[in-house]
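Incident log, support desk, overnight shift.

02:14 A customer reports that sequence design results differ from what the structure should imply. Their input is reproduced verbatim below. On-call engineer (initials T.W.) acknowledged and began investigating.
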């Protein structure tokens, strides 16, 4: 009888699972089949690129990949990802959202984080994706640096020219400077993730009532057997 009661409770619990959780699916990607350039590390404070989706979707997260540069001591740090609509903040772009993640999640592998809630992207609309605080934590070359998140591969796709900040160029987090050359800095590694809702499993009221009646009957039989004993 205990097994019957346990089975009934298990079924009821399974039917009443919350539907608030979300998994994610790949909505768009740029150069995620290439490895980051392990011959370079970031000397700028912030870096980012313009992105225009060909199709609209709800953006929930962004992944990238930082290299583990040769002969360099990598110092993990908190990286902030920002998304602006229209342009960079220095040029009047509108902030749509941001999130933070530990750089170790994306060093030598694809990793990143998610926004607090999905952001609807429109096909043909220009957005700016920025990574803040990627710069070196030490003035000593090859010490406390973070690898770059572009490929430097001749077969990789080009995005926009890189927008960046340094201590001698613009103010922090404004992305007010631009790489003059459309070169390997224009080959970022990016994945754009969309939410994949878990199918609802909330039971209809009649199912709950039916299960409730069944559990009550099981409980009665348990009590009767105990009374007869």
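02:41 Re-run completed on a clean worker. Output:
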């Amino acid at each position: 009888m205990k097994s019957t009661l346990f089975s009934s409770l298990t079924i009821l619990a399974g039917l009443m699972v919350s539907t608030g959780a979300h998994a994610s699916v790949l909505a768009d990607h740029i150069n995620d089949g290439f490895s980051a350039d392990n011959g370079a590390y970031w000397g700028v404070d912030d870096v980012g690129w313009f992105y225009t989706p060909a199709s609209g979707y709800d953006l929930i997260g962004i992944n990238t990949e930082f290299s583990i540069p040769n002969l360099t001591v990598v110092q993990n740090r908190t990286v902030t990802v920002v998304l602006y609509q229209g342009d960079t903040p220095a040029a009047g772009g509108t902030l749509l959202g941001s999130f933070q993640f530990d750089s170790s999640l994306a060093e030598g592998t694809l990793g990143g984080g998610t926004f607090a809630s999905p952001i609807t992207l429109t096909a043909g609309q220009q957005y700016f994706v920025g990574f803040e605080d990627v710069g070196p934590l030490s003035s000593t070359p090859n010490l406390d640096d973070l690898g770059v998140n572009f490929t430097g591969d001749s077969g990789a796709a080009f995005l926009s020219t890189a927008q960046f900040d340094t201590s001698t160029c613009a103010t922090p987090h404004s992305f007010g400077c631009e790489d003059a050359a459309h070169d390997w800095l224009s080959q970022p590694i990016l994945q754009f993730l969309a939410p994949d809702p878990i199918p609802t499993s909330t039971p209809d009221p009649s199912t709950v009532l039916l299960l409730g009646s069944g559990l009550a009957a099981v409980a009665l039989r348990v009590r009767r057997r105990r009374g007869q004993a």
